[in-house]
Amino acid sequence: MCAAHIFSMLGFASFAALLPIFFSEWSLSNTQAGWINGIYFGAYMIAVPVLVSLTDRIDPRRVYMAGAVVTAFAALAFALFTGGFWGGFLVRALAGVGLAGTYMTGLKALTDHIHDGIRPRAIAFYTATFSIGSALSYLLTGEIEAVLGWRWAVGLAGLGPLVSLAIVAWLAPPSQPHHLTKSTTALLDFRPVLRNRRAFAYILAYSAHNWELFALRSWLVAFLVFAQGQQSVGAFGGGWSPTALAALITVLGLPSSVLSNELAPRIGRRRLVISIMCASAAIAAFLGFLAPVPFILLFAVVVIYGITVTGDSASITAGVVANAAPGQRGATMAAHSFIGFAGAFAGPLAFGVVLDLAGGAESLLAWGLAFASSGVAVALGPLALVTLGRRLPDT
């Protein structure tokens, strides 16, 4: 399932990695770019409650394979037909539906076959592969575009979901009937999930986490291009392209998710998540203002930020799954994704709006305030965990 998820993600950064090109070719404003970045997660947010809730009733593999087909089709449509804001908006929305059919449904398929003793570790590894897939998407998109142009870069990414479909169809075991008959609620009835304070506290934290995470991943390449323009010639990146740097930053953040999840049982999951999110908010408050500093310092800070941004991911998701009521795991994961990816939709859009309102993508102040706005958003996660979880055990 981890391998399948990596392949399914190859088109994840198709727009974000090539954003400087689309600014020029499509004459986009920062707000329009924010909409295209955000609608990917907005469509995911709308589709995921239905698709993941279905996995309490039918084999998750069937939902996963349908999602992989949609993802591949969206990549092909992007490559062949898209030429401006509305085309980009629609195909990225379709790609978001495909992500809804693969990401959490893949996790459900995995957890159906993993016993409780190793489930948190399995979840950590699976969610960590999101970073691997994202990093490969940045890298391959940038490298293919440099040789063949952006349409080939976007279109070839559609081969990845077809590989993931083949992996799941041939290698993943079907869910047994006892995994599919335990649902205790009606389809799309999330009221029991919202009453579960243990799970709901982590779900709200996940929304704050996703706001920051996907704002960063949507705007990282554009920020690196801006920072490159603030440096002296030859002083930026040692010859690395912004997309390659974004891939490196993304993948370097991966171990933090797995390792922090290993630490969670020792120091308390909620305490760990609160600490990481507070550290991330503090870095975001000044990161955008560092574009003119020497590259090695900027790169070090962005890497540390990438680590804090991803460090709480597996622990939050494991906290949600661990606190899901019996028979409601699929519904809980659906609510987790729906509410969580509301933040993923809002984060990239709000980032672009702040850029426009504060002076545009050529303004150091605008970048500083845009990153700071993400810091304010992620700081709401610890607030939710403290408010809703103050009388609950640290699990």
Please describe what this structure looks like.
The longest helix has about 35 residues. The protein has about 400 residues and is an all-alpha fold. It has a single domain, classed as MFS general substrate transporter like domains (Growth Hormone, Chain: A, Up-down Bundle), CATH 1.20.1250.20. The chain is built from 18 helices and no strands.
Q: Which helices and strands appear, and what pairs or packs with what?
A:
Blueprint: H1 2-8, H2 19-26, H3 30-54, H4 60-81, H5 85-111, H6 119-148, H7 150-156, H8 159-171, H9 191-195, H10 197-230, H11 242-252, H12 254-267, H13 269-287, H14 295-311, H15 313-322, H16 329-357, H17 364-378, H18 380-389
Helix pairs in contact: 1-6, 1-8, 3-5, 3-16, 4-5, 4-7, 4-8, 6-7, 6-11, 6-12, 6-15, 10-11, 10-15, 10-16, 10-17, 10-18, 12-13, 12-14, 12-15, 13-14, 13-17, 13-18, 16-17
Largest sheet composition = none
What is the total domain count? 1
Assembly type of the shown chains?
single chain
Low-confidence stretches: none
Mean pLDDT: 86
Share in helix: over 70%
* Beta-strand percentage range: under 5%
CATH class group: Mainly Alpha
Order of helices and strands: HHHHHHHHHHHHHHHHHH
Principal-axes geometry comes out as globular
CATH topology heading = Growth Hormone, Chain: A
Q: In angstroms, what is the radius of gyration?
A: 20 Å
| Helix segment tally | 18
Computed structural class:
mainly alpha
Query: How many extended strands?
Result: 0
Structural features:
77% helix; 395 residues; Growth Hormone, Chain: A; globular; mainly alpha
